[in-house]
Design brief:
Length: 552
């Protein structure tokens, strides 16, 4: 049996910004319950929630003060249980964010840890003596400055690879590992279908606290060789995967593997015994250019172990939204980007608002909340153009300003809208097995065009160049195009694509695309590059074992 996350699509929700049920200007879990009909209509199979656990919000939920509860502002445990139940009735699974690299400095563990050098939780965190008056080593915080803060009370430094309010846990301590085993089981027993793991590559630090070396390409920077990316982290995920397999169906682990080398990213799959999915940041940060994206996809397909499964996303809560970063607001390019996301081999993850083509918002300085300037990707969802925009009650000031942009009501009944394109692509994926499971293979294409096949009967072509391009194909049919007027069009003597136009084509096996240059130029020989067809396997099954069923 194929695991649900192989065939399905995941929708990422920033809970504070999706739907406010009680009129306080802050989105909450009950608001998500109220919008489940929309998500069912859209056609998603899973919801990934950004942090819902109690937090002082120094880093907006990524500084957890209690791993086994829900922030009261979002609704509490009962609200999450209701969401799991109601979503399950619609066939939608719930994944939570888990933050195992660090806690809040207000967590009981850290409060005890810093109370004395002999405290029971002292070794649950990374404490060290300094080098004279300086920190223990040269490690730098992701947010700038040293990754160490001196504690006057106990006379030692503690490690924080992020904010000082986010002290790093000591994953060399078996008690920490045992505690997180219990945390995973607590949520799995409540029906949670899996976790997205924050800073998945960073949990384990070098035991000897050696200095990070300089980056040879950027001498002013350091390579996080010892502060993160340690090989011992794989032991943690092998252990967690065994816990996931105790349940039926198996729970899923999705890693924020923030590395830019697809080979290193692929290592987090292990031998099919670590993460089921690892986010591909080389893809996220690549420019929206066919040669660069094709290269990342080919490297990824070659690197992922047999039976492994890619996962793709265009936006998230930490980066500039794709509609701005890749497309600069160009509606045609936004459509092409969604075609890419939803037609590659792997699990697509839509960030709320992606399906509308929502751009990054400008948040006035006086309204900004996030110390790292990421508010523009986290603004409230616009459901309508009425007062409160369907997010909150009229007259209520939302926690972040709405900004401008499209809303659901304006696009939902428009067959030519970006929302309709997204929904129709998701429906095609559900209806056609090859669009979910068939291998990816690059096809030769003109300059500026990226073309690939999915199995023997489907091909995708996207023109990201500046001039019209011709891609030859015999007796093919456009199943769906970014120009919806072309849906169903028969192509007998070559597919002409305008700049920033793409299409999904249906063809017989012998009629895979052959690439040509810009209209009237010399043709290229067709080339089909498949990746290890002898070892390419269907996405892993859902596992076996005992345990309560989640809403999955």
């Amino acid at each position: 049996m194929t695991a649900w996350w192989c065939d399905g699509a995941v929708y990422q929700i920033y809970p504070r910004s999706f739907a406010d049920s009680n009129g306080d200007g802050v989105g909450d879990l009950a608001g998500i319950v109220n919008r489940l009909d929309y998500l069912e209509w859209l056609g998603v199979d899973g919801i990934w929630l950004n942090p819902v656990m109690p937090s002082p919000n120094a880093d907006w939920g990524y500084d957890v003060s209690d791993y086994c509860d829900v922030h009261p502002e979002l609704g509490g445990l009962d609200s999450l249980d209701q969401l799991v139940t109601e979503a399950g009735r619609k066939g939608i699974r719930i994944l939570l964010d888990i933050v195992p690299n660090h806690t809040s400095d207000r967590h009981d563990w850290f409060q005890d840890s810093r109370s004395s050098r002999s405290a029971g939780h002292r070794d649950w965190y990374v404490w060290a003596d300094g080098r004279g008056d300086d920190p223990p080593n040269n490690w730098r915080s992701v947010f700038g400055g040293p990754a160490w803060t001196f504690d006057e009370e106990t006379g030692q430094w503690y490690l924080h690879n992020f904010l000082p309010e986010q002290p790093d846990l000591n994953w060399w301590n078996p008690a920490v590992r045992d505690a997180f085993d219990d945390i995973l089981r607590f949520w799995f027993d409540r029906g949670i279908a899996g976790f997205r793991i924050d800073v998945a590559h960073g949990l384990v630090n070098d035991r000897e606290l050696r200095d990070d070396p300089p980056d040879p390409e950027h001498p002013a920077r350091l390579q996080p060789v010892y502060s993160m990316n340690r090989p011992e982290v794989h032991d943690v995920y092998r252990r967690w995967r065994k816990i996931c397999e105790e349940y039926e169906p198996a729970r899923v682990l999705v890693g924020e593997t923030h590395v830019l080398d697809p080979v290193v990213m692929a290592s987090y799959y292990g031998d099919g015994d670590e993460l089921q999915l690892a986010f591909n940041f080389a893809f996220v940060y690549a420019p929206f250019e066919p040669e660069r994206l094709l290269g990342v996809v080919e490297q990824t397909e070659a690197a992922i172990p047999p039976g492994g499964w890619p996962v793709w996303t265009l936006s998230n809560h930490d980066v500039i939204r794709f509609a701005t970063r890749w497309c600069n607001g160009d509606q045609a390019k936004i459509r092409c980007a969604l075609l890419v996301l939803l037609l590659l081999r792997g699990t697509p993850v839509l960030y709320y608002g992606d399906e509308l083509g929502l751009e990054q918002q400008d948040v006035p300085k006086e309204a900004q909340k996030d110390m790292a300037g990421r508010d523009g990707a986290r603004t409230p969802m616009r459901w309508s153009d009425e007062a409160g925009h369907g997010f909150t009650e009229p007259g209520v000031e939302p926690w972040l300003p709405f900004g401008s942009g499209p809303d659901v009501a304006a696009q939902r009944d428009d067959p030519g809208s970006i929302l309709s394109l997204c929904r129709d692509l998701l429906a095609l994926r559900r209806d056609r097995a090859d669009l979910r499971q068939a291998p990816y293979a690059s096809l030769s294409a003109p300059d500026g065009v990226w073309a690939w096949s999915r199995g023997a009967g489907y091909a995708v072509a996207i023109n990201l160049g500046e001039s019209e391009a011709l891609v030859e194909g015999e007796a093919v049919r456009i199943l769906i195009g970014t120009d919806r007027e072309r849906d169903g069009e028969r192509v007998r003597s070559g597919l002409k694509l305008r700049p920033s136009e793409g299409a999904l084509l249906e063809a017989r096996p012998v009629q895979l695309l052959r690439g040509y240059g810009a209209v009237g130029s010399q043709s290229y020989n067709a080339r089909l590059t498949a990746f290890r067809p002898d070892t390419m396997r269907t996405c892993g099954d859902s596992g076996s074992g005992s345990g309560p069923n989640p809403n999955a």
